[in-house]
Amino acid sequence: MQTLIDVSLYPLADEFIPAIDDFIARLNARPELTVHTNPVSTRIGGDFEAVWDALKAEIRGTFEREGKAVFVLKVLNAGGADAGA
Questions:
Q1: For all residues of the chain together, what is the average pLDDT?
Q2: Residues 6+ apart with CB under 8 A from 41
Q3: Most Cβ neighbours (<10 Å): which of 7, 36, 64, 72?
Q4: Pairwise CA distance, residues 43 & 82, whole Å
Q5: 24 three-class SS
Q6: Is 55 helix (H, G, I), strand (E, B) or coil?
Q7: Taking the domains of the chain in order of start, what are their residue ranges?
Q8: How far apart (Å, rounded) are the C-alpha atoms in residues 35 and 53?
């Protein structure tokens, strides 16, 4: 099953851009995902398990590096659509 997840990251720090850039770079390093970034969110597409496994690891990594942060997720059962849809 394919899924598409729209993620917004809000680090609770004065210097928030580096944390967002790092999170996006780590997602882009995963060839099993389709990643598209726009000014307010990042869309991650791919196999349901692969997307959730990646998000679980990268959200945890952000929490460990940054301390406090907020993630907002919107989840779609993409049914064959890719992250560009």
A1: 92
A2: 6, 7, 8
A3: 7
A4: 10
A5: helix
A6: helix
A7: 2-77
A8: 15
